[in-house]
Amino acid sequence: MNLKLKKNKILVLLATFSLGLGATAQQDRFLEDFVEIKADGHHFYIYKYAISAGEYNESLKLWGEAPSKELSNKEANLPALVTKEEAERYLADISDSYYIPFRLPTESEWEWAAKGTATPKRTKELRCVSCPAPNESGLFGMLGNVWEWTSTPETEEDERYFIIKGGDFQEPPKSLSTKSRFAVSRDMEDMNIGFRPVADAQDFETTLHINRANTIVKTLLPNEDITIYQYDLQIGEFSMGFGDTPPESFPISVDQDTHQIIFCCMQNLEFEQEGALETERITYLGFPYNFDPSQLSLAKELEQLIRQLMETQNQ
After folding, report:
1. pTM for the complete prediction?
2. What superfamily does domain 50-195 belong to in CATH?
3. Lowest CB count within 10 Å: 49, 103, 230, 311, which one?
4. Given pLDDT bands bounded at 50, 70 and 90, which one contains residue 230?
5. CA distances in angstroms from 246 to 151, 195, 277, 282, listed in the order given
6. 35 half-sphere exposure, CB direction, 13 A CA radius
7. What end-to-end distance do the CA atoms of the chain give, in Å?
């Protein structure tokens, strides 16, 4: 594993940013509201709720487009009603913020997630995103509150029209079904259409692992400048890539006897001169850090998380 100066480092799926545990905790609260779905060989995570008007307006503020009037609490908790382009811009925004490539669900993914949704009673108006009862997977409002965008075009040849699912509060209950579909123009503004984020399982779980690893590092070694990334770890000004690890070592090991975490490895080059012949010898040096013996289980968990990140990279 080579140790090298950080230089124009690209932050791929960074979980803690420069804010430390506060950013990780904020991410965890958002990511906890995703539900894991496995169906027909597919594995993904989908948000429990349609994105609310309040959540959407936070992005508008960042874009300098926030409405002059602040939303009431009731208005903020209603679904955001958007065009497909607006939904995709929001998803690009949170993808940059959370370093997870969020997207709209396909029609099939939406149907798998909506399985077990009971037909709701008809209401006179939109309800808050968490007001409808959850389905068997724990997803709220999949039927009868707001239509939802999918990424599935009506036909493969024409991507001007896309499938929306779920039906809104104006639909008669007997017409509501997880199989019901309607095709609308991607810039449709005259219907109640919302959306919810989806992420592929590997991308989502990688970030969960990184979040947890960085939380453990800050707990075990609160005074050290160490950050875990998807492909390497950062110690001060130096980055140590997982992919260059020599066979006899590992990016991190835990010594249960000395209660040390050892981050490996710095590549050390030594040269020996014998007459006109110069021999290069490479040795690997580790960075040991002491931790509280009572936190051994956390240290072992950190070791396992980094092993999982390394295995994911090598797949």
Report:
1. 0.80
2. paralog of FGE (formylglycine-generating enzyme) (3.90.1580.10)
3. 311
4. confident
5. 43, 46, 26, 11
6. 21
7. 18
